[in-house]
C-alpha cells in the first residue's frame, strides 16, 4: 500500500486556501546533496544553454548579471533527479492533492542571488499556461536555503484559487515575468527552513520579495497535473520553455489586461 503523506485536514486546507505547507519533504542530508547539484547548474558546470534565463529581466537593477536566475527542466540534464527523493515524494503528495492521475509536467530552479533585491511579481501560474480543459494542478516550491521575508520567501493570497484568473501583463521587459494587480495586504507570507516546501494551485496568487541578504535563496520547483492534460499541452506544442526558457507570454487571451 502506498504511503499517505497528508491528513484529510491538510487536503481540505489546500482545496480551500490554494496552498499548503509540507515540512521536511527531504532530510538535511538530502538538502546538502541537492545543493551540490544546484550549484553545478548555477556555476554552469552543467550547461543548460537556452534553458537558462533571467526571470527578473527588466525588473532588477543589474544589466550585467541575472536578477533572478531561472533554469527550466533541470531533470533533462541530470536525469537521475526524477528518481531521487524530492521528485518521488512530491509526486506522491500531488496525487493526494489533485488525484491519482497526477504526473510531473515540468521542473525548474529559481535562485535569488545575494543582494539581488528583485521581486518576483504577483501572478497566477495559470496565466502562463495553455487554457487546458482540466485545471487541476499543484506546484511544489522547495526551499534549499532558509526562506525568509528578507531573502524572498513565498506569499500567497488565501482563497484566490477559487476565483478567476486576474488580467496579466508583462511586469518589465517583454518576455520577462508576468504580473497582475495584487498587494501584500491580501496575502500571507510563508517562511520555510531548508528541506520544507509549499504546494500551491494554478490560480493561487503568489509573489516574493527580493533577496536583500548576503546568501542565496535557492528554490527547486516541480509542477504536477493530470497526465492527460500533459499530453494535451504537448500535442499543441506547449512544453514550458524546454530549450527556450525566455519564451514567456500570456498564453490565454482571456487573462490579458
UniProtKB/TrEMBL annotation:
Gene3D superfamilies: q2cbj1_9rhob like domain (2.60.120.620). InterPro entries: Phytyl_CoA_dOase-like (IPR008775). Residues 238-257 are annotated as: Disordered. It holds the Pfam family PhyH. Keywords: Dioxygenase, Oxidoreductase. SUPFAM superfamilies: Clavaminate synthase-like (SSF51197). One of its GO terms (molecular function) is iron ion binding. The keyword Oxidoreductase applies. This is Ectoine hydroxylase-related dioxygenase, phytanoyl-CoA dioxygenase (PhyH) family.
Amino acid at each position: 500500500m502506498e504511503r499517505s503523506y497528508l491528513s484529510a485536514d491538510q487536503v481540505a486546507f489546500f482545496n480551500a486556501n490554494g496552498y499548503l505547507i509540507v515540512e521536511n519533504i527531504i532530510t538535511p542530508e538530502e538538502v546538502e546533496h541537492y545543493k551540490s547539484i544546484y550549484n553545478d547548474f548555477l556555476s554552469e558546470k552543467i550547461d543548460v544553454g537556452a534553458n537558462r534565463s533571467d526571470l527578473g529581466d527588466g525588473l532588477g537593477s543589474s544589466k550585467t548579471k541575472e536578477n533572478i536566475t531561472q533554469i527550466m527542466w533541470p531533470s533533462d540534464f541530470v536525469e537521475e533527479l526524477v528518481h531521487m527523493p524530492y521528485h518521488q515524494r512530491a509526486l506522491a503528495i500531488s496525487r493526494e492533492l489533485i488525484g491519482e492521475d497526477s504526473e510531473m509536467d515540468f521542473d525548474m530552479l529559481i535562485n535569488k542571488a545575494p543582494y539581488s533585491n528583485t521581486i518576483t511579481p504577483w501572478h497566477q501560474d495559470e496565466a502562463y499556461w495553455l487554457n487546458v480543459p482540466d485545471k487541476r494542478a499543484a506546484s511544489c516550491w522547495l526551499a534549499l536555503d532558509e526562506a525568509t521575508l528578507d531573502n524572498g520567501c513565498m506569499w500567497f493570497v488565501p482563497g484566490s484559487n477559487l476565483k478567476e484568473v486576474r488580467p496579466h501583463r508583462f511586469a518589465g521587459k517583454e518576455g520577462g515575468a508576468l504580473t497582475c494587480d495584487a498587494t501584500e495586504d491580501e496575502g500571507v507570507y510563508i517562511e520555510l527552513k531548508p528541506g520544507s516546501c509549499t504546494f500551491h494551485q494554478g490560480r493561487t496568487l503568489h509573489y516574493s520579495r527580493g533577496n536583500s541578504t548576503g546568501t542565496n535563496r535557492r528554490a527547486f520547483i516541480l509542477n504536477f497535473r493530470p497526465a492527460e492534460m500533459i499530453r494535451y499541452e504537448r500535442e499543441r506544442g506547449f512544453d514550458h520553455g524546454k530549450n527556450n526558457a525566455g519564451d514567456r507570454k500570456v498564453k490565454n487571451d482571456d487573462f490579458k489586461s
